[in-house]
Amino acid sequence: MTNDIGKLVLRLAVGVLILLHGLHKLQSGVDGIAGMLAGQGLPAVLAYGVYLGEVVAPALVILGLFTRPAALVIAGNMVFAIALAHASQLFELTKMGGWALELQGMFLFGAIAVALLGAGRLSVGGTSGRWN
């Protein structure tokens, strides 16, 4: 049972914290992201994919439905976020000695952990199905 509780805690932590970023983008829009994409020569319309990575996928992870693919979407979202907005900080440390991308790294590796572990029994999807 402790394994399933641990999976639930991890799912809720990753899902809720990413979802909060998504809710902010629902309120303020994705124009900044569209500008970053255009600056890299990518279509600005890809910015709307952030709604999948920061709203839909976290909601699925929280519920425990299609948990593994949803967690991979979150991980992909974080790779794009790091590449577009934080690439210059990739090898930097803070004044306190921590990695400059601690938060982004925790989101990325937390999502990868959820994708590898699955949802567990304490989820809407339960342990049935290969996507949970």
Task: Characterise the protein shown here.
The chain is an all-alpha fold and 132 residues long. It has one domain. It is built from 5 helices and no strands. The chain has helices at 2-28, 31-39, 49-63, 67-85, 102-117. It starts with a helix and ends in a 15-residue tail after the last helix.
Portion in beta strands = under 5%
Biggest sheet: strands, sense, closure? Answer: none
**How do the helices and strands follow one another from N- to C-terminus?**
HHHHH
Give the number of helices: 5
Distance between the termini: 17 Å
Low-confidence stretches: none
Shape descriptor reads: globular
Number of strands: 0
- Structural class, by secondary structure, is mainly alpha
Count of domains: 1
- Rg (C-alpha, Å): 16 Å
Share of helix among residues?
Answer: 55-70%
Overall pLDDT, averaged?
94
Q: What labels would you give this structure?
A:
132 residues, mainly alpha, 65% helix, 0% strand, globular
Summarize, please.
The chain has 132 residues and is mainly α.
What layout of secondary structure does this protein have?
Blueprint: H1 2-28, H2 31-39, H3 49-63, H4 67-85, H5 102-117
Helix pairs in contact: 1-3, 1-5, 3-4, 4-5
